Protein: Ankyrin
Amino acid sequence: GHEAVVKLLLDTNKVNVDAKTTNGQTPLLLAVQGGHEAVVKLLLDTNKVDIDAKTTDGQTLLLLAAQGGHEAVVKLLLNTNKVDVDAKTTDGSTPLSWAAKRGHEAVVKLLLNTNKVNANAKITDGSTPLSWAAERGHEAVVKLLLDTDKVDVDAKTTEGWTPLLLAAQGGHEAVVKLLLDTDKVDINAKTSDGWTPLLFAAGKGNMNLLRSLLNTGRANADARGPYQRTPLWWAVLNRHEAAVRLLLGIDVINVNAKDINGSTPLLWAVQHRCQGIATSLLGTGNVNLSIENRDGWTPLAWAKQDNQNPMVELLQLYHENFTIIS
Structure:
């Protein structure tokens, strides 16, 4: 970024302004990467630089500037009207992909305003600019992309991840709300290994996310995820008592849902001495105490052999006061 030195060298008219390093980087590429606006301008003004110069992995001047969030440099490059605004690297990344991924709002806006970028450009794993922004929780960038009305809000990666799934997994509440407000997202979309947005929210005990998803009235509250566990199951498993209580307030919830081991949420709570969660589950009046897991254990049998006297009393009290559901 030594502007004065660069000017002195250029004034000799003896330097190769496009000399390349072993990995293909020119002075202009290096200046752009560093965000050195004044040096970039000096080099561009020579009219002797290769504006389409790329690194060995296909990174262009504009991509490097976008990646670094160098707004002024991006403007300089765009103003030449000579750069390919949608040039792809070897993995399919575009300048917009990187600007969205890094959360560089001003750069994203500049690129979108050219009307020459593919807002749905995918890299090799299927991620789009919206996918990246949603995963990283870049709310302002997500809003810019959605406002174009050109993005596929439900675009899937090769493993089935939609922007909503990525935002939910990351706990990015504001981004989840923006996506839900489009009314164009599949709220029950699943990853290749079975996770839904609600399963993520329940597993993390994120109450705001849970409420946002449940308030749509479209989320499947009993969706089966990894190990055949439901949102309630994951909330119990991770000991999120508030999330458990919220889910139990849903009429359709199956409190006796069995996982691949035949265990119910109550059996797990008993096995791990979670009395508070067990009390909440029993409080529904819908728990079936006679369900055995694959090893033949019922909640009461486990509590007795584990010498959990308070838990035994709780389960026996329930047994005496509620009809067992068959």
The chain is about 50% helix and 0% strand.
